[in-house]
Structure formats: C-alpha cells, structure tokens
Design a protein that fits this description.
Blueprint: H1 3-20, H2 27-37, E1 45-49, H3 55-64, E2 69-74, E3 84-88, H4 94-104, E4 108-113, H5 123-144, E5 145-156, H6 161-171, E6 175-178, E7 189-194
Parallel strand pairs: 1-2, 1-4, 2-3, 4-5
Antiparallel strand pairs: 5-7, 6-7
Helix pairs in contact: 5-6
C-alpha cells in the first residue's frame, strides 16, 4: 500500500471517530473485534485495562446497556464516561489489581486490554514492555473472569509473543490472534482474542 493510501486509511478512521463522537480511532478496533468474535454481550460486567482516553469504554457502554457494568483503569486520568467506574493506577501493581478486583465485587464476564507502552522506538524494548502489560492483564483476567468469560489483549509482535499465546491457550479456548482492519498498516500490534475461560482460581 502506498504512503498516500496509508494516510487515507488512517485519516478515514480519525474522521469517523470525530463524526461519531469517539475519543480515539481505536474505538473501531474494538468494534471490528466485537463484530467478528462477539466477545461482549448485553448485561455483561466488563473490565477495561489501559483504558485512556476511554474510546473502548464508549463502545462497551453501547453494547452492555443499562444492565451492564464497566470498570476502567489507566495510569493516566480518564475523563468520565457515563456508566463507567474509573480507577487510576498501574495495572502491573498487585495492589492496583486487588483494587480492580475489589471494585468489581464479583466475577466479571470480559477483560479488555488496549494497553501499550509509551514507545521508545527501540523495537525489542517496546515489545518486552508490551508483553509485560499483556501478562499483567492476563493475570487480572484469570483472577476476575467467570468460567467461559472472554478476554482481549493488545500485544506487539516479537519473540516473546508465542509463549504468551501458548499460556493463554492453556486458560482459554478458542484463542485467535487478530489484526482489525482499523489497525494502522505500519503498526506491529496484534490482539489476542481469547474466549471460553476454562475456570477460576
């Protein structure tokens, strides 16, 4: 794809986000994952990790409806989203993970993580931190999900990805690695879409 066509592709989602009231173009990644895999249902309790600026929460509120519940966590402050409980903290911190679990108050149906490191341009370093974030989200998911619950994790491609996928497959079935069409063409991010959590701890 030419540089010009790449720019057009990116700008299309940016314009759509602005027009449709989403805080970021990343909303369309979740919409496309949801369309393909149906990971979220009406009435679900959902935990969104690495949630800033809140575009995934905006998508989730429309899916779960008034009977659903959403808990969002990020290092950054998130502007309030109606119907969403917002927490601030580092999801790799066990105390913060415990706070998320306490806030949920019960097992949840879905754990989402669109978390990504502040990229340094050093591909290996960025990949390692991305895997660390994904593993932290995976840890929270295993502590929080109901049996048959679902999980979506963003990860950067690299040598540590296959072992993570193997671990996720031990805990979920089926598991797919997916790149939504809204992902930038030059991006090296993937999403692990894991359904059917095999059981609690």
């Amino acid at each position: 794809m030419s540089h010009w066509r790449k720019q057009q592709h990116q700008e299309r989602y940016f314009r759509m986000a602005k027009k449709e009231g989403y805080r970021a173009r990343s909303a369309y990644k979740l919409l496309q994952i949801q369309e393909k895999f149906r990971v979220i249902r009406k009435g679900d309790i959902v935990v969104d990790l690495g949630a800033a600026p809140g575009s995934w929460c905006q998508v989730v509120t429309k899916i779960v409806g008034q009977r659903g519940r959403i808990i969002a966590l990020d290092l950054q402050e998130i502007e309030p989203v109606e119907g969403v409980t917002v927490l601030q903290g580092d999801m790799t911190d066990p105390d913060v993970q415990a706070q998320v679990i306490a806030t949920a108050g019960r097992k949840v149906n879905v754990v989402l993580s669109d978390a990504a490191p502040s990229t340094t341009g050093v591909k290996l370093r960025d990949h390692v931190i991305s895997i660390e974030l994904a593993r932290a989200a995976f840890e929270v998911a295993q502590r929080l999900l109901v049996p048959k619950g679902n999980m979506v994790l963003k990860v950067f491609n690299g040598e540590d990805l296959p072992p993570l996928i193997r671990d996720v497959k031990n805990a979920f079935h089926p598991v797919k690695v997916h790149t939504p069409p809204a992902t930038r063409n030059e991006s090296w991010e993937n999403f692990i879409v894991a359904r059917g959590f095999k059981g609690g701890r």
